[in-house]
Amino acid sequence: MELVRLINQSVSFISSLVLRCAAELQISDHIKQYGGPMPLHELARSIPIPPEKDLMLVQLMELLVHQGVYAKCEAGYQLTPTSELLLTEGSNMGTFVSFIPEVFFGKRFFTGKWFKDTDVGTVSELAYNGKQIWHVFKEKPELGNFFNEAMASQCKESVRDLVASHPDIFYGINNLVDVGGGTGTTVKVIADTFPGLRCTVFDLPNVVENAPNSDSFSVVGGDMFDNIPTADAILLKTILHDWPDEDCVRILERCKEAVESTEKNGKVIVVDMVLDAEVNDSKETETKLLFNLLLISTVGGKERTKKEWHDLIIRAGYSDYKIYPARMSLYSVIELYP
Ligand SMILES: C[S@@+](CC[C@H](N)C(=O)[O-])C[C@H]1O[C@@H](n2cnc3c(N)ncnc32)[C@H](O)[C@@H]1O
């Protein structure tokens, strides 16, 4: 059993690549369009792939069926709730699953050498001559756009969870700024769910210039370390996990200034993982631990425990806070009061 476990873990990167492949081939869309269990040859011709590769597609689908991504009956392959997340017309998480292996594999990710060296920075800095990933995204717009699309693609699902499971956190707010909100996917869902709530997406100028024109929200470019537009509520969704503690304190101080300067007694809404929060299933714990290592090694951030959140919030000068349990997704909501 130990041998199987060890070998399994050493080849498990294949899972990530195979998922990317399924997303790139839009297998979920093809099965959905077929309208019922889809035989292999129909799937192969519909994608299409050359007949010489049919056998490889069988093997790929075998693994994905075993892992529960797709289901299989005598008549062919079917979608599961997991593969439905890859539907282009639905959650469209394909860009996210493609981005992760594309950008992080082969970048000296978690090597023994990286661990032993004392002065090498994060893996991204190593791979990009000491530059922070956000600067790399600016210099390489293709990569930056890929990242923004990947964020938007994973965002839809988690923000739907957020508004469905915690609608009350948006009640009584007149305006909200989504700091680090990318190209506006989150604020669009929030604005459409709570008409009357004025929403703004705030991110680096090179990011917001790609936000679509929308009647639902406005767009402001800037640097969250300098100045954040004032609002009744500031949303920080999966932002603080990108940064070490010192930087988080600075960001939280800017947010506090922004909500304190309105008439309302404003608040900051953090949506991020809490490592030791109650989990709904064991995959959640493993996913949080994997993400934690991804962030530590790539951008120099981390996921945090309740105690680490407490210390950060108090250091940034907030008087109180409340952690809501994550109900449907990996993310908890933490409300911070100035
Ligand atoms: C992990 S993404 C989160 C995106 C989005 N909030 C979500 O939930 O999908 C981090 C975001 O922070 C933005 N960002 C990084 N540095 C920033 C800065 N100094 N000022 C404003 N935004 C910044 C990035 O451009 C990116 O959109």
From TrEMBL:
<dbReference type="Pfam" id="PF00891">
    <property type="entry name" value="Methyltransf_2"/>
</dbReference>
<dbReference type="GO" id="GO:0032259">
    <property type="term" value="P:methylation"/>
</dbReference>
<keyword id="KW-0808">Transferase</keyword>
<dbReference type="GO" id="GO:0046983">
    <property type="term" value="F:protein dimerization activity"/>
</dbReference>
<protein>
    <submittedName>
        <fullName>O-methyltransferase family protein</fullName>
    </submittedName>
</protein>
<dbReference type="InterPro" id="IPR016461">
    <property type="entry name" value="COMT-like"/>
</dbReference>
<feature type="domain" description="O-methyltransferase C-terminal">
    <location>
        <begin position="130"/>
        <end position="319"/>
    </location>
</feature>
<feature type="domain" description="O-methyltransferase dimerisation">
    <location>
        <begin position="12"/>
        <end position="88"/>
    </location>
</feature>
<dbReference type="InterPro" id="IPR029063">
    <property type="entry name" value="SAM-dependent_MTases_sf"/>
</dbReference>
<keyword id="KW-0949">S-adenosyl-L-methionine</keyword>
<dbReference type="InterPro" id="IPR036390">
    <property type="entry name" value="WH_DNA-bd_sf"/>
</dbReference>
<keyword id="KW-0489">Methyltransferase</keyword>
<dbReference type="Pfam" id="PF08100">
    <property type="entry name" value="Dimerisation"/>
</dbReference>
<dbReference type="InterPro" id="IPR012967">
    <property type="entry name" value="COMT_dimerisation"/>
</dbReference>
<dbReference type="InterPro" id="IPR036388">
    <property type="entry name" value="WH-like_DNA-bd_sf"/>
</dbReference>
<feature type="active site" description="Proton acceptor">
    <location>
        <position position="241"/>
    </location>
</feature>
<dbReference type="InterPro" id="IPR001077">
    <property type="entry name" value="COMT_C"/>
</dbReference>
<dbReference type="GO" id="GO:0008171">
    <property type="term" value="F:O-methyltransferase activity"/>
</dbReference>
